[in-house]
Amino acid sequence: MKILAITGARSEFDLLSSLYDKLHEDDFFEFKIIVTGAHLSDTFGKTIKNIEDKKYPIADRIYNLVDTSEKIGRIISLGNQIPAFAQTFQREKPDLVLVAGDREEAISVSMTAAYLDIPVAHFFGGDIAKDGNIDNSTRYAASKYAHLHFVTLEEHKKTLIKLGEEEDRIFVVGNPAIDNIVSTPKLSRKQVSDNIGFDIESYDYLVLIKHPIITEIEDQRRQMEVILDAILESNIKCLVNYPNSDAGNREIIEVIDEYTSKNESLFVFKNLDRLNYVNLLRNATSLIGNSSSGLLEAPSFGLPAINIGSRQRGRIHGNNVLFIDHNKLEIKEAINKVRTDKEFLKRVENSDSPYGNGDTTEKVKEILKKIKLDNNLIYKNITY
Predict the structure, then answer these.
(1) Residue 326 per-residue DSSP state
(2) CB neighbours of 112 closer than 8 A, spacing ≥ 6?
(3) Rounded to whole angstroms, how far apart are CA atoms 301 and 321?
(4) Bridge-partner residues for 58, per DSSP?
(5) Which of the residues 12, 23, 193, 360 has an alpha carbon 20 to 30 A from that of 370?
(6) pLDDT in tens, 164-211
């Protein structure tokens, strides 16, 4: 089976890389990857380097990203992808295309492949976040174009069925992010400190990841300033990751660069390889910001997550997540809680992740081997 996987950002690549490893190693599959989006941008750390290190065959590098903080940039970037994907699919003639989540690649890939009668397997459909972000609509639209659905939870399957998707196309497999965590070797704090060039060996520290929300662009600068002020006043070190490429990213980046240049307790990184990123989380006091890592990956570490603002609200989560607003006092109180509240920390340590136990990639691989590639897979019907 010839499979093309598409990746446009470090976040979803990290989620699926354990599956890509299995497909690449198995002779049943001819596996290639298409790299696009933020992976190819210097602004966001040129993360294609992490993919090249994996030695996957790269079918194409699609430079589509309009490097702007304006809303119009994302839709132009999406539009740029469609003809490029169409030409790559026409040349490569894959049996199946894999795409994940709710970024622009999810809709541009699934729509393009569907129009070319190429089956699409979509990951993480049916998830619900009540944050008003465009990603929710993108996720649902991609599901309607896709022919196979690998979903994380039974609740997500029920959502897709409500959308009119046929039940036999939907497979509940858990989240492959857990597989990555289980398979990533453990490093000591000293090893991570040496690798990243910032001393975390003897100090508590936070990891901050804040992404913009398209409906709150005008607030991004103020929100980031409030978060960093609260962290500095809490006297704790913090490693700050750059945001994704959504509109509003430039304002967040400017604040990050300004604060990290003036404060030695803050350390900025655009890109960390999986080994160091996972171990950074393993040893952290808390993940703070609004990244899905706080819901998907942090529970497996017993790691508290402080989720600030509307992003990720309404999604299924473990006992490790604190939801708060962009209020300095609330943020400082949450930071104090994850450092000192022994009852809360014990509950987090002993809680299970709602997203699986590390066997997702093997499940997906075996399902793909049994999929019958015929017109019944291509021809979709709405069940209502």
Answers:
(1) S
(2) 81, 82, 85, 86, 89
(3) 13
(4) 33
(5) 12
(6) 999 999 999 999 888 888 888 999 999 999 999 999 988 899 999 999
Q: Which domains are assigned to the chain?
A: 2-175+357-378 (3.40.50.2000), 186-350 (3.40.50.2000)
Give the CA distances from residue 164 to residues 126, 218, 246, in Å, rounded to whole numbers and listed in that order. 11, 37, 30
Q: What is the pTM of this model?
A: 0.80
Give me the amino acid identity at 109.
V
One DSSP character per residue, 150-205 reads EESSHHHHHHHHHTT--GGGEEE---HHHHHHHHSPP--HHHHHHHHTS--TTS-E
Nearest to 95 by CA among 41, 147, 49: 147
Residue of 308, 309, 283 lying closest to 298 (CA atoms): 283
Distance CA 246, CA 331 (A): 24
What gap in Å lies between CA 112 and CA 168, rounded to an integer? 23
